């Protein structure tokens, strides 16, 4: 049976601008903003108005393609120079999610095939739309594989927001729960609030409530206790970059969850599209970890919770060693250890 449910999305292409859901303001305000100039795109990614690895990649692709439509140059070298400048600007927005770099490279490869500026402009936009469309299908497939691995009726814990609004639609770690709603299956989700900027409390709670998923909020420090009470059957998280040995960078706090899962003997799953793998690196130590402004830690939504002169360390991501990961759920299949061998095999199709 299929249930009609509301799965929120955050990115809409409108031929001369990109409309995005401003994730900075959720859940208090549901605001959509238009991105038109390259600086709008850069700022939206930097300030987390749009966030989540696949959504960052999609937005950057539209930003680069849309900006190129406005280059008023006649020479191919001038076109390439402006394209390179825009690409570098977007690439400097956030360092960890490899989907950003993957999308920018994919657009650059496209113009390598072009013989005129007009052709390049057309193909760039086409490619951005393609990246967006493909991601929706990819996430649906991840959701289907997720449902194969998660026992119906299970209680599952997650962190951050690896959901529909972090992708084209459905999400990665949250995709199984949206699909389960469509299929009238039942799961119970626990969402860690995800300090410092509360993607779990603000975004995952909002998103799952939209599609009717049974979701309970806990603070990050409650995870071990909640699991020790045996209320949780599995943990599922998203990813920002996965090295070729399976080491996975995801939102800060993910590593603690993996260690807790290991201690209590419950499965720890990573859900991510093939675009989140970085096969050019051997292990997680090579993944650049973004450090964000100290204000995110000193204050919550503008209200100080620590003295303003406090010393602060604010890494946005951590790396979970592959030894703590039970399986990685991708659109191409479920990858089990030995990750070094199986990642390459499954991604190769
Ligand atoms: O800083 P954010 O909110 O962009 O971090 C997002 C995450 O860590 C997500 O888990 C990851 O990008 C996967 S989104 C499908």
TrEMBL record:
Keywords: Amino-acid biosynthesis, Isomerase, Methionine biosynthesis
Reactions catalysed: 5-(methylsulfanyl)-alpha-D-ribose 1-phosphate = 5-(methylsulfanyl)-D-ribulose 1-phosphate
GO MF term (any one): S-methyl-5-thioribose-1-phosphate isomerase activity
Transmembrane segments: none
EC number: 5.3.1.23
Top EC class, one word: isomerase
InterPro entries: IF-2B-related, IF-M1Pi, IF_2B-like_C, Initiation_fac_2B_a/b/d, M1Pi_N, NagB/RpiA_transferase-like
Catalytic residue positions: 240 (proton donor)
Domain of life of the organism encoding this protein: Bacteria
The keyword Amino-acid biosynthesis appears for this protein: yes
Pfam families per the UniProt record, alphabetical: IF-2B
Transition state stabilizer (site feature) positions: 160
Binding site for substrate: 51-53, 94, 199, 250-251
Similarity-based family: Belongs to the EIF-2B alpha/beta/delta subunits family. MtnA subfamily.
Complex formation: Homodimer.
Protein role: Catalyzes the interconversion of methylthioribose-1-phosphate (MTR-1-P) into methylthioribulose-1-phosphate (MTRu-1-P).
Name of this chain's protein: Methylthioribose-1-phosphate isomerase
UniProt organism field: Rossellomorea pakistanensis
Protein encoded by which gene: mtnA
